[in-house]
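Is nicotinamide-adenine-dinucleotide placement plausible here? Inputs below.
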Amino acid sequence: MKGKILVTGGTGYIGSHTVVELQESGYEVVIVDNLSNSRADVVDYIGQITGTRPAFEQADCRDLDALDEIFARHGQIDAIIHFAASKAVGESVQKPLLYYRNNIVSLLNLLELMPRYGVKGIVFSSSCTVYGQPDVLPVTEAAPIKKAESPYGNTKQINEEIIQDTVRSGTPISAVLLRYFNPIGAHPSALIGELPNGVPMNLVPFITQTAIGIRPQLSVFGDDYGTPDGSCIRDYINVVDLAKAHVFAISRMLEGKQAEQVEVFNIGTGRGLSVLELIHAFEAATGVKLNYRIAPRRAGDIEQVWADPRKANDVLGWKATTGIEDTLRSAWNWQLKLRERGIQ
Ligand code: NAD
Ligand code: WQD
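Reply from A.M.:
I modeled the complex. Tokens:
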């Protein structure tokens, strides 16, 4: 075994794919998840993909005593990957205290326990949302942090600062902040993927649900932006590629290769795609025609953002490799699998 990694939010969308990649790279995993936005059977599916069922603790990261007991029981944990958070931007505007409590208290608890249990480092799920609408594209890690548009976005900024301040105070831990762009797709086995709660807010689950007939029509939010085809541009990153970035971050951390105690990396492809381009790529990849219409802009949307991933490529040694059509096919196969399982 290369080391034992505690993965909070490990039954969630990105967490489950990361647990698979960690196990396939020889790490032992302990998942902590309260199942507030995921299902317990994900642990079985991870077992089916990798041949190893990870340890699973149903617990809430807001509960310091519960976490303390888990650390005490599992012996030496080498590092943490912290995915557990509430992530719905719109809901965070309606319920800011829920978001601040969940996303901030969970991190505080982990940071408090890490030195007590000799945990060396933490990889944190941050987001390109910290850049807002960047002045320069593609956006690098050196770009200024813009005022957050939502309580959710603000929790990411505050959490980054909490980690920086904790390390600066002399706490003997290191950290890697991964700023994800737009994660999409599912594991090629179609055994794990994204489980949207209710009506999806994110584009790709809305596309696959429309394609399968759960939603009658997809709305393209705006075609009058200052982009070549008028629709918004994002950097869509395959979730398995994204999961692999965490394995690179963990090995860099545990091998003591970090240049600074807190390192920040953009995790994206470096390629921006418009909403309309993504729709056409989905149709080309799956042969399924999408019923869509142009709708008004969605409040709070950024016009265009895509990553400069060169730091992750050169320093972390990670690169996104999966093409958009393969990624969209994986999202479609996952949607078909959900129907087969009678879930959605
Ligand atoms: P997800 O909701 O699928 O996974 C989060 C998991 O954390 C869920 O399984 C949920 O049950 C669990 N969880 C939430 N609060 C918890 C708590 N207090 N204690 C224990 N478990 C808890 O979300 P995801 O898309 O996999 O996102 C993972 C992380 O990546 C989040 O921090 C999210 O903010 C961040 N992120 C996501 C995206 C994206 O578009 N999906 C983009 C950038 C950053
Ligand atoms: C992508 C594009 C929409 C739905 C959000 C969060 C961000 C990050 C990732 C966590 C946009 C358009 C969407 C639809 C559409 N999460 N769209 N019709 O807004 O880039 O980012 O998820 O950190 O913080 O804000 O992702 O998938 O919602 O939208 O036209 O039905 O698709 O306008 O241009 P977004 P998204």
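Short version: The chain has two domains: 4-185+238-268, 203-233+271-313+322-338.
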